[in-house]
Amino acid sequence: MRWTRRRVQTLTTWAIVVVWVVVYAIALANADPLPPLETAVWQLVVPPLLWVVATRLVLRHWWSGPGSQMSATDLPGRLLAVAVAALPERRREWGRAMTAELAEVQGRSARWQFALSSVGAMLWLPPASGWPVLALVAVVVVASAAAAGPAVGAAVPGLRVFAVTFTGLVGAMVVLAVACSRRPRLRLPVPAPTVVVTGGVVASIAVTANFLRREPAAAQHLPPAAAVYLAAVLAGCLWVALAAPRWLGTSRLAPHLGAAAAVVFAAWFWLAVHTDELEPPLPVMLVLAPVLVCAPLAAFFVPAFAAGRVGRSFRSGLQAAVWTVIAMIPLTYALWLPEGLRRHAIDGRLLIDGEVVAPVGMNLADALAFCLGIFPVLGLTLAVIGAGLGAQTSDRAGPDDHAPGVPRASR
Amino acid sequence: MTRSRRPSAQTTAVVLALAERPTAWRYGYQLCQQLGLKPGSLYPILVRLADRDLLETTWDTDVPAGRPPRHLYRLTGSGRALATELAATAAAPGATATRRSGPKGSPNERWQGA
């Protein structure tokens, strides 16, 4: 069967719809009480609609373009191209060498064997700093991760799993940096957005520690799986900000737009929380209402659209989308927990649902669900749509979108 | 335990294959086919040889339209000296002990156990 763009688009559309209907049916079956009918219809229709639109835009840009090799290269070629793109700069020549040799290999089976073996070779290319240095760094990282558990656990018992996981993941990034570069240096091509993300991550860790110190019982809302997830997301944000992959670092405008949008989103969140508490007079509400409704949507859509349009490429828009999300997650999370503590001290209610009197620890579960789940998923979807529309409305496709060799959306 | 500093059997095979026609440029896939090696084995060897200045590389731009330039390999002077040494030790009866160390300052010593 030939995998045409239209066929893949149709297949992914159906996959999204079916999976969401099943997931939502299970959620409704376990819901108590059931949501109102109009809410249920909205939740059933709008999210998959956005995902379908975003996925079709991604596939459209992935597939199209006169220089794109996606339509001309078979799967072994694409696999190898992706692996080559992940190689450090000083080793990429060897990746290109393997790619060029694959072009000479005839026969489907032989091509698969050559591609898979080449990908294996890339994993075992000698590290830039040599194996002994790499092994030493790896030992230090493992020891640090092992020591972080008891050290942090003694001060904040509920943070033990998080500490081990976060230290291990950050250590893995260090190992990767040492493996890729003879003299790893911290390059900050976009200092301001990097500082925003890094500051957000540091603040997130600090507020979590403070929350669990003040409310030790809240540790039940940070089970090991959630702690690992929190550590992975924060470490991921840090990794993108400090050692952004090449395909994320080509546009200087996109990270600034993304970080600024994340700050706007965090400001919107703070404003929404305080507006809900203060219940301002009607004229003020009439002014604030459109801002409160439109700001979160615009915070994701606008920077991606602008970057896609100015950069004349879908990739520029995607870069802004990713920077928006990685800055928004820690900033919003770092606001949520102290605001949750403050709000609960006033009237015993939760931050997200002011009508419910509940244990203060529930704020931690809510922060994880919204800041690390719902906001990024829906926000990224909106941003991808913005990036696609921005690239489409630009005068012409940018040169970035037509560079051969690597699948477009993976570069 | 003393670590052996001689090249592996596969590395020796690659060096000797390249030394068959020392001035000719060779393709990676060609070497894979000749030696029955997978690229997963061949390319790390080529990378180590190049890192130690035993192998020189260049790009073949004279390829059919639409094909990417191919990488070419041949031994450097040091690489040819290593090949000569490896060929001699391989041919010598009871050569194992000699191969383990090699003369001081030789290309074999430069290999450093890769």
- What's the shape of chain A? globular
Distance between the termini of chain B: 17 Å
Structural class of chain A: mainly alpha
Main sheet attributes: strand count, strand direction, barrel closure of chain B: 3 strands, antiparallel
Task: Give your account of this protein's structure.
The complex is a heterodimer of chains A (411) and B (114). Chain A contains 13 helices and no strands. In chain A, α8 packs parallel to α10 (253-278) and α11 (282-310) runs antiparallel to α12 (314-347). Among the domains of chain A are: 1-63; 74-125; 241-410, no CATH class. By secondary structure, chain A is mostly helical. The longest helix of chain A is centred in the C-terminal third of the chain and has 34 residues, at 314-347. Chain A is globular. With 114 residues, chain B is of the alpha+beta class. Chain B is 52% helix and 12% strand. Chain B contains six helices and three strands. Chain B has helices at 9-20, 28-35, 39-51, 77-91, 96-101, 107-111; strands spanning 26-27, 55-60, 70-75. Chain B has a three-stranded antiparallel sheet. In chain B, α1 (9-20) crosses α4 (77-91). Chain B is globular, with a radius of gyration of 15 Å. The model of chain B is unreliable at 96-105 (pLDDT under 50). The interface between A and B is medium-sized, with 22 and 23 residues.
Topology of this structure?
The complex is a heterodimer of chains A (411) and B (114).
Chain A: H1 5-29, H2 37-63, H3 75-85, H4 92-102, H5 108-123, H6 131-155, H7 160-180, H8 191-214, H9 224-242, H10 253-278, H11 282-310, H12 314-347, H13 362-393
Chain B: H1 9-20, E1 26-27, H2 28-35, H3 39-51, E2 55-60, E3 70-75, H4 77-91, H5 96-101, H6 107-111
Antiparallel strand pairs in B: 1-3, 2-3
